[in-house]
Amino acid sequence: MIRLRKRKWRAAAAALFLFFFALAGLAAAAPRVSGELDARGLRTLLAERKGRVVLVNFWATWCVPCREEIPDLVRLQREFGPRGLTIVGISTDFSGQTAAVEKFLAETKPNFQNYRKKAGGDDGAFIEAVDATWGGELPFSVLYAADGRKIRVLSGKHSYGQYREEILKVLASPPAERTSPARRP
User: Fold this and answer.
1) Would you tell me how many other CB atoms lie within 10 Å of the CB of residue 141?
2) What does the alpha-carbon distance between residue 116 and residue 107 come to, in Å, rounded to a whole number?
3) Strands 140-144 and 150-155
């Protein structure tokens, strides 16, 4: 009888261990696409992050400069996340390239959420929601102040230092300055 109880206890302990081990594996799973965004979804995403400085980075798997920027964006999120920065990536890859996007995210393991631009819909409305002057070049980033206002448009590849400088300006500026109109480099 006592042996039977010990066996049941050991079996339960082993099952519990495997359960928590599986949960830990899920938590450490490779980053995945968090969803698809259209113009309305982008506006909602930004509204949900009000109170934080947000850097939205548009990229694609086939874009070499985009892929080269990702490690710097990971570093920036790690360094400035505790100070109020949130980085959001948006892949502009076509819907048929979802596997390539997922593979890229699994390899690079970004520490920020990544979405995919929703297929179909009105591309003009999406571009307008991002920045009316955006010509589709990649990489393309937009920096928003904590109050949700667009502060800076960063077109093309930028270094860690360039991003850091712009982010520090927004994090350090008084609220009145954080609402200045967007400006180009």
Assistant:
1) 25
2) 17
3) antiparallel
- pLDDT of 145 > 80? The answer is yes
- Give the distance, in angstroms, between the CA of residue 78 and the centroid of all CA atoms in the same chain: 12
- Average pLDDT value for residue range 27-48: 85
pLDDT score of 50:
95
Give all strands of the β-sheet with 113-117 in edge-to-edge order. Answer: 33-37, 113-117, 85-91, 53-59, 140-144, 150-155
Q: How many residues does the chain have?
A: 185
Secondary structure of residue 46 in the 3-state scheme: helix
DSSP 3-state of 98: helix
The verdict on pTM exceeding 0.70 is: yes
pLDDT at residue 5 above 70? no
Token couple for 89: 């990536």
Name beta bridge partners: 86: 54
